[in-house]
Amino acid sequence: MTGSDRNGDRPTVGPVRPAGPVRFLKHCLLCIGSLDVRMVGIWGMAGIGKTTIAKVIYERIYTQFEGCCFLSNVREESYKHGLPYLQMELLSQILKERKPNAGLFNKGINFMKDVLHSRKVLIILDDVDQRQQLEDLAGYNNWFGLGSRIIITTRDRHLLTCQEVDAIYEVKELDNDEALKLFCLYAFRHRHGTEDFRQLCGHALDYTSGLPLALKVLGSSLYTKGIHEWESELNKLKQFPNKEVQNVLKTSFEGLDDNEQNIFLDIAFFYKGHDKDFVGDILDSCGFFFGIGIRNLEDKSLITISENKLCMHDLLQEMGWEIVRQKSEVPGERSRLRVHEDINHVLTTNTGTEAVEGIFLDLSESKELNFSIDAFTKMKRLRLLKICNVQIDRSLGYLSKKELIAYTHDVWTERNYLYTQNKLHLYEDSKFLSNNLRDLYWHGYPLKSFPSNFHPEKLVELNMCFSRLKQLWEGKKGFEKLKSIKLSHSQHLTKTPDFSGVPNLRRLILKGCTSLVEVHPSIGALKKLIFLNLEGCKKLKSFSSSIHMESLQILTLSGCSKLKKFPEVQGNMEHLPNLSLEGTAIKGLPLSIENLTGLALLNLKECKSLESLPRSIFKLKSLKTLILSNCTRLKKLPEIQENMESLMELFLDGSGIIELPSSIGCLNGLVFLNLKNCKKLASLPQSFCELTSLGTLTLCGCSELKELPDDLGSLQCLAELNADGSGIQEVPPSITLLTNLQKLSLAGCKGGDSKSIAQ
């Protein structure tokens, strides 16, 4: 039973879900039959079905105990009547007496222990929300007789942890099939709806998101109603949430302190689905205590954290929106704004006030909006401004390269963006933006510069993709708290600012800034920078003469087709695993490349000006993949001075390689070698057969290669040899020794037909 189950008429039908949870609780957590005393918690958000599960367990096992008690609504009853009343009720049920002698309670907790410690009892404490309730009603395991079981349902996991319960069972949302059955039980009084209501049932399930309370309340409200009434009710819910559901959920919010309430509301309005640590940086800068606050919100089932992302049930998010909306009938006097019509009204009528702390405006599916920048003048406490003017094309959405990496190594996903027509128009040049901003996220910012008096010293994130900005700021300015700058596809940006006043910058994403010519040299000294993406900056000529970014993890310069030189690496940069220079105009790499001691992937694909590599390239002990595909001017690889066990993949396909180094055998960890279309490669050195780990060798299109090494049979790990279209005339007899060879392809070899060569 959920909170709403206790009042009003409900259909007399059996539970939909409890069989699985009850079976697990009974046999795995409660361990019915063992003689020890066990306390078990049932934990989950409001309305999730904790009471229902507890009720079913109680009904199934209570006969196995000498005394039983189901204390419902502990939270409400303790507030109304006090804990002594609940103690009396507990003993009344255990002793099976209607009115135990109230005078006995003068003896306090010791009397309860005297009554309980010799009895095998089953006690359910439903909806506990305070530590004192557990101390007065459940105490410790030694209060109870052998074989006793105490079950506690609560929204607060921390209470169960403090009570040191033996096990905690988390109740989660119903899956789609379970949700449909439960909804139909209340909407139709049987487990399956009729065909003509199928689509509407789907909309109802989308709204309720597997929450049993909402499924029951909404289903009951639609019972005996027609299709048009269903449509009207479901449309109404988009604007006016169901009060019965909201009232139950709101009790969890009301139990939070001010710090937790602010964090909850900011997540509900702005940061659902975002990286926890990144949001923590922003909200800590707002004066909130994010670390303890987010832990308490998670313990109280108001948020969940999955893969370091902040998750929140849709109805809890809707509750947050509604709480703020109900604070004032006037949109400009609310702390947070998200509804497009409300924001439109505030900006176009210039009715914003100091009460406004955050705005989230999604323009991707809205009409054009015209307003004066002065609309922000009165919003002096504005700390979060998010204006989205980008539409994600779901058909193009894909997981690909690591575009954003939070400093906790969390990989953010990259998606293709389709920039919609700029729908936001400002009447005049910018005059004011709040210097109180911590998060400025404005896709398609329509002006060429920021206001001259704009200096948000507390700013943590600056996200201005697709903007018309030409530059961020002149000279050196101090932004001590700024940790992320993203200006991707800002095609008017010509240069970056001096970064020396931004010592804590961790992410700099300038992907697709096609007019960017230079990056300020101060970038090379950003010791906390983790991710730097300059992909597709086609006009970028100068980067930095040297870098000492000791925290850098990802560096992407792919597509910087005019970048001719890679900077010197000053000092050890052990945290950079990936370096992509694909499509750049560099002619070589510095000897100091060996200082990238953590480098695992080096991508030099399509570097058509690359003429040589330094010997130090093979001193990179962590290097696993080296990509030199289509480097047409690269004729040779440097000699390898010592064994290099780490390198597993070497791509030389389409390169200008004439010969492999005589020391190629030092790559004794090499598993994959691609020499496809190396048309000038005439021979393979004898040391080639020392590549004892080689599993795949591709020689397709090597038209000048006439023969394979005589000792080819030494490559005992070789499983695949592709030499289609090569100049190979015959294979050595030792090929018969390749016992692991699974695929041999010699089609179209110039030296003869495939069949005779294979023979």
TrEMBL record:
GO molecular function: ADP binding
Residue intervals of the Disease resistance protein Roq1-like winged-helix domain: 258-328
Pfam families: LRR_14, LRR_3, NB-ARC, WHD_ROQ1
Superkingdom: Eukaryota
Disease resistance R13L4/SHOC-2-like LRR domain: residues covered: 549-650
Entry's Gene Ontology BP terms: defense response; response to other organism
InterPro entries xref list: Apaf_helical, Disease_R_plants, Leu-rich_rpt_3, LRR_dom_sf, LRR_R13L4/SHOC2-like, NB-ARC, P-loop_NTPase, WHD_ROQ1-like
Residue ranges of every copy of the NB-ARC domain listed in the record: 36-191
UniProt keyword terms in alphabetical order: Leucine-rich repeat, Plant defense, Repeat
Transmembrane segments: none
Protein's UniProt keywords contain Repeat: yes
Keyword Metal-binding: no
PANTHER family: ADP-RIBOSYL CYCLASE_CYCLIC ADP-RIBOSE HYDROLASE, LEUCINE-RICH REPEAT-CONTAINING PROTEIN
The protein's name: Uncharacterized protein
Origin species: Vitis vinifera
